[in-house]
């Protein structure tokens, strides 16, 4: 557990810097273009390389030193940030430059995510999986507390360069923590016989493993049905708030910070509590509650409601992510988790790649015009969401939030999902090779 906590501390520091850069670049792109589609395209290009690298990354994570893979990913992220900083300082930074740089960042980031997540099973006792995952959630949401507030303050006063230097310093802190630790390597499954597998069999192994277990298939489908509306709403969240506040970055920072505080509070409570004994309840009830509070946020017309609803929604994120991941860690042998989790994550990456484009098109080309005072939907929904700038995005946001809540409630009607923890046996304690 000590090694996990060292890695966790390094990731927390690095993530704060990365979140500051992402938040500041979001404001920069909006200031430069005023387009939800432009922001959505940044998300699209960040996800696109994950489609290409995920299955190969899964094979690499099961085969090679996970610490080394994380170090390589950190160096790549450092170089990407340096590239953006140099382009900005020489006044040559364009939006299309970000498309290329976030693509590189996203590809190596996916490698790091897989290496980190599959290390949990060999660093943490099985009964602590949910708590370990809650600490992982605390990393992202601690960053979401400080990063928007700091970036929202620094960006209009000192420009992007001040944020870049902070980000670069945090990368170094994370790099040092990875240098001083070792991660045990699991022995390969004797039954898998890599030498007997073709490349195609290796690439498709994770999907075949999930498909052969109906309960894991149900888990993957449920999260997919949740992820589609969630990613659409996430893609339009920032432009929706900016549009409804006249581009006020401090309000966006306050609402985003509230979500960060909610996420940390939720992670700490989950860490102290340990979650539901039946983890599937944490996943499904988390889906339902998250969708409910997101709906309230979309319907709300004031900063106070946005802050309160986003805080409550974010409190539930550690619960459904940690509960879901703990099930995967418990049911899938650690020596296979790279390929199996890569397959599951590839589904999510595919969704995350496509949905920003869908969200940008629906917001800019369909719903925003339809919700203008003379638009076709204004007489129906105008009384709830208004008819000014951002009303169409709000209608889309609320619709997606309702869908998320329905996935949580509907999941209880599926036996293979509801009883996943009874139908699948836990994996055995992994045999480990000496750390490299």
From TrEMBL:
Which protein is depicted? MFS transporter
Q: Which residues form a coiled coil?
A: none
What is the protein's species of origin? Nostoc edaphicum CCNP1411
In alphabetical order, the GO MF annotations are: transmembrane transporter activity
Q: Which InterPro entries match?
A: MFS, MFS_dom, MFS_trans_sf
What PROSITE patterns does the entry give?
MFS
**What PANTHER family does the entry give?**
MACROLIDE-EFFLUX PROTEIN, MAJOR FACILITATOR SUPERFAMILY (MFS) PROFILE DOMAIN-CONTAINING PROTEIN
Report if keyword Cytoplasm is assigned: no
Q: What lineage is on file?
A: Bacteria, Bacillati, Cyanobacteriota, Cyanophyceae, Nostocales
Cellular location of this protein?
A: Cell membrane
Where does the record place the Major facilitator superfamily (MFS) profile domain?
1-186
Keywords, A to Z, come to:
Cell membrane, Membrane, Transmembrane, Transmembrane helix, Transport
Name where it mostly resides: membrane
Please indicate if the UniProt record lists Cell membrane as a keyword: yes
Q: What is the topology of this protein in the membrane according to its UniProt annotation?
A: Multi-pass membrane protein
- Transmembrane regions listed in the UniProt entry: 7-30, 36-61, 68-90, 96-123, 135-156, 162-184, 205-228, 251-273, 280-299, 305-328, 340-363, 393-414
Pfam families xrefs: MFS_1 (PF07690)
GO cellular component entries = plasma membrane
């Amino acid at each position: 557990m000590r090694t996990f906590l060292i890695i966790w501390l390094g990731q927390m520091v690095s993530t704060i810097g990365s979140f500051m850069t992402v938040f500041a670049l979001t404001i920069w792109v909006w200031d430069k273009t005023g387009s939800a589609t432009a922001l959505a395209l940044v998300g699209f290009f960040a996800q696109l390389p994950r489609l290409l690298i995920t299955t190969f990354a899964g094979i690499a994570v099961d085969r090679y030193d996970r610490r080394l893979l994380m170090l390589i990913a950190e160096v790549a992220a450092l170089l990407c940030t340096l590239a953006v900083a140099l382009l900005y300082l020489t006044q040559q930074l364009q939006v299309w430059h970000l498309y290329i740089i976030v693509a590189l960042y996203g590809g190596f980031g996916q490698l790091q995510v897989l290496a980190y997540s599959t290390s949990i099973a060999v660093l943490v006792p099985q009964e602590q999986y949910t708590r370990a995952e809650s600490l992982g959630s605390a990393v992202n949401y601690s960053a979401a507390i400080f990063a928007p507030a700091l970036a929202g303050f620094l960006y209009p006063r000192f420009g992007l360069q001040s944020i870049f230097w902070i980000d670069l310093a945090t990368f170094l802190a994370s790099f040092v923590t990875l240098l001083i630790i070792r991660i045990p390597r699991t022995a390969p499954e004797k039954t898998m016989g890599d030498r007997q597998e073709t490349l195609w069999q290796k690439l498709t192994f994770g999907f075949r493993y999930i498909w052969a277990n109906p309960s894991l298939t149900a888990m993957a489908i449920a999260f997919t049905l949740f992820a589609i509306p969630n990613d659409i709403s996430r893609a339009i969240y920032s432009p929706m708030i900016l549009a409804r506040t006249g581009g006020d970055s401090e309000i966006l920072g306050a609402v985003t910070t509230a979500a960060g505080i909610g996420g940390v509070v939720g992670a700490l409570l989950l860490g102290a509590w340990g979650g539901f004994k039946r983890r599937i309840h944490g996943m499904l009830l988390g889906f339902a509650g998250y969708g409910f509070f997101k709906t309230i946020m979309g319907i709300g017309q004031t900063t106070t409601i946005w802050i309160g609803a986003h805080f409550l929604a974010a409190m539930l994120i550690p619960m459904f992510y940690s509960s879901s991941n703990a099930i995967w860690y418990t049911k899938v042998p650690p020596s296979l988790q790279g390929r199996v989790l890569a397959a599951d994550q590839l589904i999510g990456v595919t969704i995350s790649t496509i949905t920003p484009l869908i969200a940008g098109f629906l917001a800019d080309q369909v719903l925003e015009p339809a919700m203008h005072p003379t638009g076709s939907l204004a007489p129906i929904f105008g009384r709830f969401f208004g008819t000014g700038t951002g009303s169409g995005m709000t209608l889309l946001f609320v619709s997606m939030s309702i869908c998320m809540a329905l996935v949580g409630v509907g999941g209880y009607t599926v036996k293979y999902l509801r009883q996943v923890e009874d139908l699948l046996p836990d994996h055995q304690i992994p045999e480990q090779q000496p750390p490299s």
